[in-house]
Amino acid sequence: MAIHPTAIVSPKAELDSSVEVGPHAIIEEHVKIAAGTRVWANAYITGHTEIGRDNQIHMGAVIGHEPQDLKFDRATRSYLRIGDRNVFREYCTVHRGTELESATTIGNDCFLMGLSHVGHNCVIGNGVIICNCALVAGHVHIGDRVFISGGVVIHQFTHIGQLAMFSGNARISMDVPPFTLAAERNEIHALNLVGLRRAKIPLPAISELKRLFQSVYLSELTGTQALAEISQAGAFQTAEAKEFIEFIRGSPNGLCPGARR
Prior knowledge:
The protein is α/β, with parallel strands linked by helices. The chain has four helices and 28 strands. The strands form three sheets. An eleven-stranded mixed sheet has the order 1-4-7-10-13-16-19-22-25-27-28. The protein has a nine-stranded parallel sheet with strand order 2-5-8-11-14-17-20-23-26, with no helix packed on it. Strands 3-6-9-12-15-18-21-24 form an eight-stranded parallel sheet, with no helix packed on it.
C-alpha cells in the first residue's frame, strides 16, 4: 500500500493493500476502499463510506461527508456506497444519506467532473457523466448513461430516465423521461438520438421511441390521452419503448413538458 507520509489514515479504516493515498489526504475510521483505487492529494473521505475497485478520487474531493440537510442528526448512521471504476474530479462533493441507515449510491463507470455535487440519498446508475458545476439535490434518481452538462441544477426527488441528456445550465424540477434531451427550465426538446446511436440502441427501438415522442410531446393530445394511446396492447414491442411508457405511467413528480415553440 502506497500511503504518503503526510496523509492521515485512520487505523480503523479498511483499505486494500493496493490502494494509493496522496499527500495530505484524510481517510476516517469507517471508510472501506477496495483494490486499485487511488486517492489523490487533499481528498477527504469520511462517514460510513464503501468504495469499490479502481476508482479515482482527485484533489480536494469530499466523499461521504454529512448531508446538507437541516434535519440531519450527527448521531445518525447513514452510508455512501460507490461501485467500481468511477472518477471523482477536483473538488466534487458526494454526501451520505440523511435518514437512519439510509444511503447514497453510485454505480459503476461514472464520471463526476470538477465542482459537481451529488446530494444525500441520491441513486446514481452506471455510466453517468455529471459535468463541471452541475448540482444534483437530495433523493434524485438518475438512470444509466445519463449525461448532465455543465451548470445543470436538478431539484430534489426528481427522477431521470436512462440515456437522458441535459443541455448546459438547464434547471430541472420535474421528471425527465428516458432517451430524451432536456434544456432550459423543465423543457423536453427532442429525443437524444445521438446518445441512442452511440449506445447502439437497435433501429426498431429508435423507431418506436420516435412514435412515442410524437404522441407525448408533438401531438395535440393531453397527457391522459397520450398515455391512453401509447398504452394500447401490442402497439409497442421493444424494451426501450416499454421502458419509456412505464416511466411516464409511474412518474412521481409529473413530466417535464415539451419545449414551447
